[in-house]
Amino acid sequence: MDAYMWIALFLAVLFPLPAIWAYRKGWLPGWLSPIIASYGIGIILANSGIWPSYEELNKFIELLAGFSMLLGLPLLLFAVRLNKRTLKLAGPMLIAFGFCAIAGIVSTSAVSIYLADEVADTPVLGGMLAGMYTGGTPNVQAIGTALRADSNYLVLIQAADVLLGGAYLLGLVTFLPGVYARIFPAFQVDEKKEDIAEIESAIHPNLKRPLPRLLAQFALGVAVTAASLGLTRLLTGSIDNFTVLILLLTTLGLATTFFPNLDRLGDPYPLGEYFILVFCVAIGLLANFSQLAREGIDLLLFCTLSIVPTIIILILLCRWWGIDRDTFILSSVAGLYGPVFVAQISAVLGNRALLAPGLAVSLLGFGIGNYLGIGLAYLLSWFTGVALPSPGG
To answer: N or C: which end of the chain has fewer CB within 10 A?
Structure first.
């Protein structure tokens, strides 16, 4: 490992800790959440002119991002609590979130078909973006790894997502809530306070997290990842079939949530969030916008043509169904950005009642997005005749 690899490693592993601490102390402005700070520090360094970009370094950072995603994904999924009460209170959010998934599928499929002859690997890109619009940025890495997307594609498409998704997120924390207030009805609190507390407790048990609990959570996450690797080898003869690996990791992570004694480990969400923040620092370091301008104009076009119609279709569907403003906004955040952004936007809206349902559907979408993205990629490959990268190499 050279010096830049060590810098990338220490920055990714250590920076999220003071970012989380400063945010909880109230030392950061409300819009500067730990995840934005984690993305930001990587992006600033990557585009500063002093950070190099060469194959060995980029592969190391991709490995770091992939490793943190493999650990963070099951830990976040452990926080899912699927029960009748959760589904009842999250009903409108589930509907709006379903619209978000539908909008993403329709938009990315149309763009994949339209650009099939102009942009390489459009089924892979369509699957990655559809998964991202269902569960957030980590799904891009998971689905891209599963489909053996070109590593340069992974770097460039995530740089495009940081640029475009970051612009929309900035709007959500500034002027867009006021605009959407003119389009959607206001949120009405129908649930009782005890119901809200119950669903919050179901998703995030109010338990302390001493070191033994954190170690137990980490050990369970490692065990699920190791089991997924072992089953992948057993089923395919190799751990290199990332499609099977990601699907198994998602399935086992969700299956673990049904263990009756899981709550004894405390809330695994903060530890999972930490690994996702490590992932965000790494992705930020790969988001070289000058490289995107040189090599990724087609990808930037693909992403723009995908995200804009996705948001427009979502607006139309939610307005047609009578979804309120706050539910619409948080459902789009849950789909486009994932669970780590839900709490921040909920605070911006001043809506505590929708925090728990928003987290519930975003965590669910985080898992569903992998199935949806991989499945859509195969469907688009069949429809367009564009072959997917070979699972064997």
So the answer is: C
pLDDT at residue 58, as a whole number? 86
Q: What is the 3-class SS of the chain, one letter each residue?
A: CCHHHHHHHHHHHHCHHHHHHHHHCCCCCCCCCHHHHHHHHHHHHHCCCCCCCCHHHHHHHHHHHHHHHHHHHHHHHHCCCCCHHHHHHCHHHHHHHHHHHHHHHHHHHHHHHHCCCCCCCHHHHHHHHHHHHHHCHHHHHHHHHHCCCCHHHHHHHHHHHHHHHHHHHHHHCCCHHHHHHCCCCCCCCCCCHHHHHHHHHHHCCCCCCCHHHHHHHHHHHHHHHHHHHHHHHHHHCCCCCHHHHHHHHHHHHHHHCCCCCHHHHCCCHHHHHHHHHHHHHHHHHHCCHHHHHHHCHHHHHHHHHHHHHHHHHHHHHHHHHCCCHHHHHHHHHHHHCCHHHHHHHHHHHCCCCCHHHHHHHHHHHHHHHHHHHHHHHHHHHHHHCCCCCCCCC
The whole-angstrom separation of Cα 40 and Cα 46 is: 10
Say what the pTM is.
0.74
Query: Do residues 281 and 16 touch, judged by C-beta distance below 8 A?
Result: yes
- CA dihedral (337, 83, 91, 197) in degrees, to 10, reads -80
pLDDT, one tens digit per residue, over 104-152 is 999 999 999 999 988 888 999 999 999 989 887 778 878 888 888 877 7
10 Å Cβ neighbour count for 269? 23
Q: Specify whether the CB–CB gap between 9 and 18 falls below 8 A.
A: no
Tens digit of pLDDT for each residue in 311-326?
999 999 999 999 999 9
End-to-end alpha carbon distance in the chain: 26
- pLDDT computed for residue 389 by the predictor: 81
pLDDT at 198 over 50: no
CA separation for the pair 174, 113 (Å, rounded): 35
Question: C-alpha dihedral over 44, 47, 50, 56, to 10 degrees?
Answer: 110
Query: What CA–CA distance (Å, rounded) separates 40 from 47?
Result: 10
